Amino acid sequence: MGRYVRADGLDIWTEQVGTGPDVLLVGGLGDTVESWHFQLDGLADRYRLTAFDNRGAGRTAMPEDPVSIETMADDAAALLRALDIPSAHVAGFSGGSIISQELALRHPRLVRSLVLQSTWPVPDAYLRRWGLFIRWLAETAPAERTFLEGFYLDIYTPRAHNDGTVDRFIEDVLAFPHKQTTENLNRFLDAVLDHDTTNRLPDIDVPTLVLAGGRDSTSRPELGRAVADAIPGARFAVMEEEAHQPFQEIPDEWNARVDAFWRATQTRTT
Length: 270
Known about the structure:
The chain is of the alpha/beta class. It has a single domain (about 5-270), classed as Rossmann fold. About 45% of the residues lie in helices and about 15% in strands. It contains 11 helices and 8 strands. Helix 3 links the parallel strand 5 (about 90-95) and strand 6 (about 110-115). Helix 4 runs antiparallel to helix 5 (about 145-150). One of its GO terms (biological process) is glycerolipid catabolic process. One of its GO terms (molecular function) is triacylglycerol lipase activity. It comes from Streptomyces capillispiralis.
């Protein structure tokens, strides 16, 4: 069961499960702890996993203060400190991967390793235009279902659309009682599109695994490759048949990849 954790003046909705080395899971645009369902279930026998709702998503309120990636990275750091976690393996996807990059840059002692799924150093013209399209879609879609059906075209593979997986995800989202407002979605989106870590990525000095989906039309493999090339010693892998969120579509394979990476990381640091 989740609970609120008071962290630097913000009540952050948090779920923590399992035992073992600490892992912090950082979600993307509008995503809540539920987006990590397959990891919270599938890895809890080996790790103590902490997932949370970013400010303005799910059950965590959006303060009136300006929203930035730096602020959300500080939220994550404050959460770890409030939970007395001295350092954690950090995994983030999409916008959450950008928060994770910034967490490692601003609070390096809290980060033991990084897994960056569907990431980039700075939005290129294509990704920026896609983000602006999503903003328009959220503002003009006639219904929540219509928005999700359009948004998920770029998030999940045709396989997942055709086999009913996406339909099940949509039903879960529609039933979720803690809706993100369009205003808060746009504030998060604006923060992500304005952020650039290109020149600072070489300062990240923890083991890093960058994963990309070969069929991801948004954060395309070349963007992930640019991140991996900039971080000293980072590993890069393309999951050729996957899209933006393979940790949900093929969770067993994704969990096995990151588990192997975390185990190797612990072997090197113990």
